[in-house]
Specification:
Strand order of the largest sheet: 3-2-1-4-5-6
Number of strands: 13
Distance between the termini: 58 Å
Radius of gyration: 23 Å
Largest sheet: 6 strands, parallel
Order of helices and strands: HEHEHHEEHEHEEHEHHHHEHEHEEHE
Length: 397
């Protein structure tokens, strides 16, 4: 059966970021698979066996059944497409569907009869059916459900998490058709521990977006409690220890919330809720609190600088999350850029970020000499930073 599937399906993964690359590499273990990304530099690096996200090594990226391409026109032999392009927000917090729109338009030019498309990008409910499919149909002159088939499988990749890798997590697959369903499930068995099948795409879209909203709201609550405890001079750590003795208390940590999911997904759900005249009072409740942590930490550092006016300060960890090289929506990076604007004594240190960004922004990527700085302020505590700073007996904040 597997050999038949290998002949039948020619997969193509469109978008090779934190979500798309793991999918591509897992599929390439069993199928001749193509990977496409609009970023030519990304494609060239992957061809050389370089993952600038530091998630995979050369041996993982160089596989016989794997081809990296930067032109969609080269994919006309493919018949199974997985879409993992980013879905960010504009400055006004409204959904930015530009990447999704462009990939649908480009894909429609090579779409053939019996092709299958699975969207994995995070969206609000209704996008696949009401936005993506109409673009594909109008441009290709083919009919979804008759000539080609569309499904949705919400991504659950957690960058930097060594425990919950793609093959170790449960994965939802929404596919409302009978066409090749057994074969599709066989393919997706390579992309998850257990595949949960549903026919309802809107429910899968909603499930994905609320997974992140739930975390964002909970972290927002803890951040608020943390700020109140500080104001009232109550020991927050002791409060959490005591509260955690109750069996159903969920222990979240306060801190900066960044990245491409938690700061974005609540706005997607709030947007479609408003469009449907439904009130979403709690959905955005954590957003203002989580964003305010940037100002709180910035002011705290500024006060430290005032007390240590002429001392050299190193801001450690600038990405949005521990052990991840991604700077998107990183509040740590935003704080650093604001601090260094008018202070020549402030430098950054992050061993995971791109060396070109580092060079332009007074950021060290190699372990700093311990005697060069007086104060070390840790914003994102990567393992490499934590291990290095263990050697330091100076001021750490």
């Amino acid at each position: 059966m597997l050999k038949n599937n290998q002949k039948l399906f020619k997969p193509c993964v469109i978008g090779l970021g934190y979500v798309g690359l793991p999918i591509l590499l897992n599929l390439a273990n069993k199928y001749p698979t193509y990977g496409y990304d609009i970023n030519v530099k990304r494609i060239n690096n992957l061809k050389k066996g370089i993952d600038t996200f530091n998630e995979y090594k050369k041996k993982h990226l160089k596989k016989k059944k794997l081809k990296y391409l930067s032109k969609l026109t080269n994919f006309n032999k493919c018949n199974f497409f997985i879409i993992t392009v980013p879905t960010p927000i504009y400055k006004n917090k409204k959904p930015d569907l530009t990447h999704l729109r462009d990939v649908c338009k480009n894909l429609s030019k090579i779409l053939k009869k019996d092709d299958i498309i699975i969207f994995e990008s995070t969206v609000y409910p209704g996008i696949t059916k009401k936005y993506c499919i109409p673009i594909l149909e109008n441009q290709s002159k083919l009919k979804e459900g008759k000539d080609f088939y569309v499904g949705y499988s919400p991504e659950r990749v957690n960058p930097g998490d060594k425990k919950h890798k793609l093959r170790n997590i449960n994965k939802i697959l929404a596919y409302p058709h009978k066409f090749k369903i057994k074969e599709i499930l066989k393919i997706y068995s390579n992309l998850g521990k257990k595949i949960i099948l549903t026919k309802k795409i809107e429910e899968a879209e909603t499930a994905k977006v609320i997974e992140n909203i739930q975390r964002d709201v909970n972290i927002g609550l803890i951040n608020e409690i943390y700020l109140i405890c500080k104001k009232m001079k109550i020991n927050f750590e002791d409060v959490m220890k005591l509260a955690s003795t109750k069996w159903n208390f969920i222990k979240f940590k306060p801190g900066l919330v960044g990245g491409h999911c938690l700061p974005v997904d609540p706005y997607y759900f709030a947007y479609i809720s408003k469009k449907n005249r439904a009130m979403s009072k709690i959905t955005l409740a954590g957003r203002s609190t989580n964003d305010s942590m940037q100002d709180y930490i910035y002011k705290k550092i500024v006060n430290c600088i005032k007390l240590n006016k002429y001392k050299k300060i190193l801001i450690c960890g600038l990405t949005y999350k521990e052990n991840v090289s991604d700077l998107r929506n990183s509040l740590a990076y935003a704080i650093f850029k604001k601090l260094k604007k008018n202070n020549l004594n402030i430098f950054g240190y992050d061993p995971l970020i791109d060396h070109n960004i580092a060079r332009k922004n007074r950021i060290l990527i190699k372990e700093p000499k311990l005697q060069k700085f007086d104060i070390y302020i840790v914003l994102t505590n990567h393992d490499r930073i934590r291990n290095h700073l263990k050697k330091i007996k100076k001021n750490k904040i």
